[in-house]
Predict the 3D structure of the following.
Amino acid sequence: MKEKIYTIPVSEVFEPGEGCPLCRLRETLEERALEYIMGAAMMEPDVRVQTNEQGFCAAHLAKMFGRKNRLSLALLLESRLAWVDEHPPAKPRRGLFGAKAEQPRPDGCYVCTRIDTAFEEMLETVCRMWAKDQAFRTLFANQACFCRPHALRMAAKAREVLGAKDAQAFQDALETIDRACLARLREDVSAYCRLYDYQSGSDRGENGGVRDAVSRAIWYLTSNKPD
Ligand SMILES: [Zn+2]
Ligand SMILES: [Zn+2]
């Protein structure tokens, strides 16, 4: 059985027109990857081989731990731990090339890898749709914001997959959205700072845009909203 996390319609994540559509896309891909790894993939021995070798990052283990399906997680960890046990850190080197490949990677994550692969493909689809589909170009222009990491990745993808003229036009469209979004954000963060001065930290801001300015700034800079 082949995984189906790639088939998310691009227009679906752009249609809400608020927040960053690529953050939304990433969340959907993550949800699907977690659902897959704790569901259908449990019956796929070749996937288990990969999860045993790659492991999971702390963030994704925490998300898996938070889901209902604790038995799936226990089964994944059971075979992952067996693999780790067979690859102790102090295992004697058997050969110059063998030793390197056998070391467990502390930073590996099967879920992150799956999401990143799908995300890159979706970025390419976004660029190509923008270049050939006028309706999508309008939908794109109507976005309120992209977080900065996703804007940078999208601009890089456009340079990679589009012709020079289209890539430049795409980056101009992206920059128009980013300028407006960043200007609003900076205004709100400054307003928050001024309110803090005046009110000594109490009841900062009547207006919601100002109240969550700090968490929105963190999101814009990192793609992640603080809890
Ligand atoms: Zn984003
Ligand atoms: Zn991960």
Remarks:
- The chain has twelve helices and no strands.
- Residues 56-57, 59-60, 109, 111-112 surround zinc ion (ligand 2) (CB under 6 Å).
- The mean pLDDT is 86.
- The radius of gyration is 22 Å.
